[in-house]
Amino acid sequence: MNHIPSSINRMLGLLLLCGSCGCAASMVYSPTLNLPSHALRQGQGQALADYGLLPETRPANAGAVAVPGLGLGIRFATSNSFALGVKWWGTFSQHYSNDSDLHLRSGVAAEAIIPLSLSGASYRTAIVPRFGFVFDGNSMQGFGTTISIAYWLPGTGGLSPYAAIGPLLGLYNNFDPPLRYGYGLVGNLGTSLEIIEHLTLHAEVAGIVQVNQAESITHGILAPSLGIDWGF
Description:
Layout: H1 6-21, E1 45-55, H2 59-62, E2 66-79, E3 82-93, E4 103-119, E5 122-136, E6 139-152, E7 159-172, E8 181-196, E9 199-212, E10 217-231
Antiparallel strand pairs: 1-2, 1-10, 2-3, 3-4, 4-5, 5-6, 6-7, 7-8, 8-9, 9-10
């Protein structure tokens, strides 16, 4: 009688486990908003960069809830009541907690700022919808969306603080059962400070309550970031 080597047995067991539980690699996303300190008028824009923590979509697989990463973006007002933006983010880090190789995990998202009310030259409240895709190298792995309600607080000393809150939803791009997805709530507290004309600093903390359907686990994640923008 032929016997199957134990190493093959272990490999077959791992494949069966992955098939039943879904061993999709964890991706990263950016909850950072870096909202402008003043209302963008038609034709005005911002070039943005930030560095901070990027939350993991599957912390149980990654062995961490967030990893450091870089973000780059641009925002442009097509009218006094609508600004459109695009942001890229990325990190070189491991897929899994026992992975020794570094991989580029990244994403790109489109966003809009739709003011609901203005106070002089400043926003007061706005809707900020975002829709994006996450990548493992060049391979698109999933997509997600969030719609935040933002409120600019009274500022002092040149600071322009704001707060935002909204639901989030993310889906893995394999629609074969079982469907893998996550959902939650994200809140943002941030401020900006114009240090010279056109140059503004940003500081923000995003707090996320994230539910992962695949593992039936809820995570609380804090994602602070520091950023800069050049207004044009």
